[in-house]
Amino acid sequence: MRIDIISIFPEYFGPLDVSLLGKARERGILDIRLHQLRDWAHDVHHTVDDTPYGGGPGMVMKPEVWGEAIDAIIDGGAPRLIVPTPSGRPFTQAVALEYAAEPWLLFAPARYEGIDSRVMIEYGSRLRVDEVSIGDYVLAGGEAAVLVMVEAVGRLLPGVLGNANSVADDSFAPGAMANLLEGPVFTKPPVWREHEVPEILLSGHHGKIARWRRDEALRRTFQRRPELLAGLKDPDKGDLRVLAELEQDPG
Predict the structure, then answer these.
(1) Among 23, 99, 184, 239, which has the highest number of CB atoms less than 10 A from its own CB?
(2) Element (H, E) at 26
(3) pLDDT digits (tens, 9 = 90+) for 25-35
C-alpha cells in the first residue's frame, strides 16, 4: 500500500519508522511518503493560511497551496483522499478495514481552523474524499489523527502482524466480535501478587475457553459501551443468558 501525507510538520511522523509499521516499511509492505506543504507556497514566507471570510477567530489554510500540492502528488492518479476533521464521519474499525483494501491513501491533515472547503469540493469531483473524525474532541492539528489512522490501517495489511489471526479478536472486529469490546487477557505467571489467572484459561478446553472469552466481552461491553449491544447480531443462547444476568445485576 502507498500512503502519502501532506503536512506543515512532516517531522511529526517519526513514529512511523518504529515498531510494526517501521518493519512493514522496511519490507516494502507500506510505502509511506511525507510531503512538506510549504514547498507549494511561493511567497517569501511560504504562507499556507489566511484570515477567514466572514470574520471570526483563527486562520484558514489556503486552497491554492493545497491544490498545487495534491495535483503534484497524485499526478493524474486517483488515491483516496482523507481529511481529518472533528466534523467528519467517525473513524471506526470498519472504516480501517475499508481503507486497508485500498492501494493508495492520501492524508491531508489541517492546522488552524481547517482547510478551505473548496478543496474538498474540487477533489470530490475527481477522487473519493473522506472527511473523518477520530473522536469528539479537538486537537491542535490533524497529524495525530493521521498517526492513529495509519496505524489502525497498517496493522491490518497482510504480513504486518506476526500472527495474522490476531486481528480476529480485536474489539469491533467483524464477525463474531462485531459490536463487542475485547475481554481481559492474561499471560504467565499463573499467580501474580495473589491475583490468579481464571482457572478456565488453564483448562485446555477450547470450547469452554471460547465461551468464557465471549461472556467476558459481553460483560465488558455492557459495562463500558452498552450502546454497542443494540447492534449485536444473532446472539446465541449463551449471549442471551449473560445479558439477562447483567440486566438483573449490572454490577
Answers:
(1) 99
(2) helix 19-26
(3) 999 999 999 99
Q: Is 79 a catalytic residue?
A: no
Residues 6+ apart with CB under 8 A from 158: 29, 164
Residue 103, C-beta contacts closer than 8 angstroms, at least 6 positions apart: 1, 2
Active-site hit among 39, 68, 102, 113: 113
pTM (2 decimals)?
0.89
Q: For residues 46 and 49, give the distance between their C-alpha atoms in angstroms, rounded to a whole number.
A: 9
Measure the CA–CA gap between 7 and 112, rounded to whole angstroms. Answer: 12
> What would the pLDDT profile of 9-50 be if each residue is shown by its tens digit?
999 999 999 999 999 999 999 999 999 999 999 999 999 999
| pLDDT score of 101 more than 70 | yes
Tell me if residue 113 is catalytic.
yes
Residue 4 — pLDDT band, cuts 50, 70, 90? very high
Q: Are 78 and 110 in contact (CB under 8 A)?
A: no
Split at pLDDT 50, 70, 90, the class of 172 is low
Residue in 191, 216, 192 with CA at minimum distance from that of residue 202: 191
Nearest to 110 by CA among 157, 69, 153, 142: 142
Q: Of 50, 102, 122, 170, which residue is the catalytic one?
A: 170
Q: Kindly name the residue from 10, 52, 63, 86 that is annotated as catalytic.
A: 86
